[in-house]
Amino acid sequence: MDVIRWSGQGERGHVESFFLKANDPTRPGRALWLKWTVLAPAGRPGDAVAELWAIRFDGPRGSHHAAKSSAPASACALPRDRLALEVAGAALRPGLTRGRAGEGDAAISWSLEFDYDDQRPMFGFPHTWMYEGGFPKGKLYTSCPETRFTGFIELGGERWRVSGWPGMLGHNWGATHNPRYHWAQCSLFDGGEPAVFEGYSGKIRVGPTLSPWLTGASLRYRGELYTFHALRRLLNRSVRVARGDRDGAWRWSFSSRRRAPGGALRLDWRVSAPTEDFVGLRYYNPDGSLNHCLNSKIATCELRLARERVGGRSETIARLRGTHSCAYEILTQDFEHGVPVLA
Question: Is residue 75 part of a domain?
């Protein structure tokens, strides 16, 4: 599934991204995010643009830098039969990425290798038809959820050596950005626990209004995959999203439950990050409307996975915390959020 889904034709409009993130295991709060995007305006596929994004996080509550480059999609390498992207001179291939985003002293450059062939993908949705049909309009897939990066990142003459940084390669596509969402992914938990989590709460458009929060999640822990994304349970009324009045932190939490042999499974999740740990980005839709993405790769998350036994007993399977090591993104059209928009 790591191939461009955009055909270069059609009038509906299309937006599609491949994205990488990596976190420094020796200095939580340092991270890198890279993204290759195709944006085809509705009714004007010949005007499609390709965008290259990069953010270097240096925190917590430190100095973050973002860079962006754009080019006509027709001038970029976007093959549909293999992963071999090249946008504004930056390449993404299986296990390798090299490039530069931005200009002058503000440019971010990198050369990184990462594990690709030995990965076990994670899917945001439970059925194959959900990736091929019209519902949902936005697709989410992670081909490399537990990869590791080696190489370097450079900004303004300062070079960070990257050695075994845990991270991911993800892919999303559709006719438009989801109107509202919270998304998180973490593969660097305190104590070196062997786990990776990915989850989302999003709203879809239903006529002139938006749906309630629809939520899905997956956790791979000590080699076993636990999924909480069954269609009948996507509507989740436990979702809470808020920004604290006192500390300014953004928060998202939910609880999910599913049947399983030996007793129902329950996942409790929460993530938070202060305003200072986000970078704001402008995400345009194919119809020309604008969203802001509040992007952090150094949020702090906590989760508990438990089995509910007969008689009300609850047996903890995993209790995990990722301190300044969790990817957390918020998409909004409320532009009074206070996060600096850097790209």
Answer: yes
For 299-326, how does the pLDDT look when each residue is reduced to its tens digit (9 = 90+)? 999 999 999 877 668 899 999 999 999 9
Q: Cα dihedral sign for 63, 325, 304, 229?
A: positive
Residue 129 parent element (H or E): helix 129-132
**Average pLDDT of the residues in 273-287:** 95
Mean pLDDT of 223-244: 92
How many angstroms separate the CA atoms of 94 and 91, rounded? Answer: 10
In the block, residue with structure tokens 């080699």 = 223
Q: Is 337 a domain residue?
A: no
Question: Domain count of the chain?
Answer: 1
Token pair 């939580």 in the structure block, residue: 28
Q: Residue 269 class from Cβ within 10 Å (0-12 exposed, 13-18 middle, 19+ buried)? A: buried
Range of the domain at 23: 14-332
110-142 pLDDT, tens per residue?
999 999 999 999 999 989 898 988 888 889 999
Determine the Cα–Cα distance for residues 151 and 161; give it in Å rounded to an integer: 6
Beta bridge partners of 69: 52
Q: How far apart are CA 198 and CA 145, in angstroms?
A: 9
Give CA–CA dist 19/181, Å, rounded: 17
Residues 239-250: b if buried by 16+ CB within 10 A, e if exposed? beeeeeeeeebb
Q: Which letter does DSSP use for residue 211 in this model?
A: P
- The pair phi, psi for residue 284, each rounded to 5°, is -90, 145
CATH number reported for the structural domain that contains residue 173 in this entry: 2.40.370.10
Q: Which residues pair with 105 in a beta bridge?
A: none
Distance between alpha carbon 130 and the CA centroid of its chain, in Å? 19
Tokens, residue 255 = 């609880």
Task: Specify the DSSP class assigned to residue 213.
Answer: P
Establish if 261 belongs to a structural domain: yes
Copy the structure tokens of residue 273.
């990050």
The verdict on residue 7 lying in a domain is no
Rounded distance, CA 18 to CA 16, Å?
7
